[in-house]
């Protein structure tokens, strides 16, 4: 976070909830924070709650994001006082009860003005300030899981999300539009959408809080995600994070200490993301088992580790497309280590060609590796975690191709079955989340979807076309560590991570 020291961050909706938590955490991270809110007295009260030596770093300004003149005046004051804006957190939001087919049209309009137009208006001001100063700024949009799936509400009752979910779906699309515009306008400005599930704020009614019981996020869980996204290297862009509460609330433990000497299994570990993940997990104290078909590459990786770290890595041959190979490798792990605490499903493959003409055996190989390989390994890891009642974590290495069918080369689609297998992983992640909760386990599931990563899987023509606009495998490994480091009651369900400037 050193590069953000004394930079200017603007937080809308800063009077309570996520906005207040974010303002506090950014002040403690060394930024000058401007808290915008209609209830400016609440921001002033928040300022008094800070340590005396930190209060000067929080400025309160009255602003109603639905009012064009109010927004213009607030941002004019900010630019006059601070010279510009480096970070914008679009947090202001609104939800009211009622049904879209019968409620007052004025209420619908007000929600859209707050949740959509408020974001657009504030972002225009911040973007102008960043671009004019050549600032590598960062803009956040506090979205919602309701921007990815229409939430049904309480079973047996009439839905009440009305226009709230459509407004959040709009933010999901707006995030991608901004990402492409920022690249097209030749800036280095990042955009991140953060989509939490239920958060304990004033927007959540008491009845719903009682129903949710312990299954609710804290505002600081969201502000921690913002700080993580800000801390990534300049070339790494966290495009979207979906954060959900875990099904069971137990004693909060933050950072990696609880994983010391725990057992992590990494598939596809011989190169790329798998190899980078092994190195990172070892440095954080795990006992790591690296699985791959190319056992010679695993042995070479082990020999490259510092001498005192080599004993933390066990290597074993495993072809995840073969049931017998998976069972043999995992039985050896269980016999030697007694169980599995973390599984990184990283093994994957892609074969060039077109779906309508290519060899069926090649298609079957990709399907067996990318989908059935995850199923095989996850079943064994889940059984081990459930039998021992551990707070395990299963991570699926997905792809942006699991959210959008990509054409990496003009007039030459080559994703064939690869993208469908990744779409399957997107759905499977949520299936696993629901199943793990239904089985009353404490096991987490996280899907990580990178854009182009500099690995052996990248086609040479794609590499030539996109040049240096690729992630390093260690960027993805860092995202894995972030997900593992969250409190035990917080589940990072999805991370979409791209190289800054990627136009896929």
Can you offer a commentary on this structure?
It is a single chain. This protein is of the alpha/beta class and 504 residues long. It has 2 domains: 2-245, 3-Layer(aba) Sandwich (Rossmann fold); 267-461 and 470-498, NAD(P)-binding Rossmann-like Domain (Rossmann fold). Helices cover 42% and strands 16% of the residues. The chain has helices at residues 17-28, 40-49, 68-82, 105-132, 164-184, 206-212, 219-231, 272-283, 295-304, 323-337, 360-388, 418-438, 460-466, 473-485, and strands at 8-12, 32-37, 58-62, 87-90, 138-142, 190-196, 236-245, 263-266, 287-292, 313-317, 342-345, 393-397, 444-450, 490-499. Strands 3-2-1-4-5-6-7-14-13-12-11-8-9-10 form a 14-stranded mixed beta sheet, sandwiched between helices. The longest helix is centred in the C-terminal third of the chain and has 29 residues, at 360-388. The protein is globular and about 65 Å long.
Which stretches of 5+ consecutive residues score pLDDT under 50? 248-254
How can the largest sheet be summarized?
14 strands, mixed
What is the CATH topology descriptor of the largest domain? Rossmann fold
Under CATH, the homologous superfamily of the largest domain reads NAD(P)-binding Rossmann-like Domain
SSE order, one letter for each helix or strand: EHEHEHEHEHEHHEEHEHEHEHEHEHHE
- The end-to-end distance, rounded to whole angstroms, is 28 Å
Label the CATH architecture of the largest domain.
Answer: 3-Layer(aba) Sandwich
Radius of gyration: 23 Å
Annotation field: number of helices: 14
SS elements, strand count: 14
Strand content: 15-25%
Average per-residue pLDDT, rounded, comes to 88
What sort of overall outline do the alpha carbons produce when their principal axes are compared?
globular
Helical residue percent?
40-55%
Strand order of the largest sheet: 3-2-1-4-5-6-7-14-13-12-11-8-9-10
Q: So what's the CATH class of the largest domain?
A: Alpha Beta
Keywords: Oxidoreductase
GO molecular function: oxidoreductase activity, acting on the CH-OH group of donors, NAD or NADP as acceptor
Family: Belongs to the short-chain dehydrogenases/reductases (SDR) family.
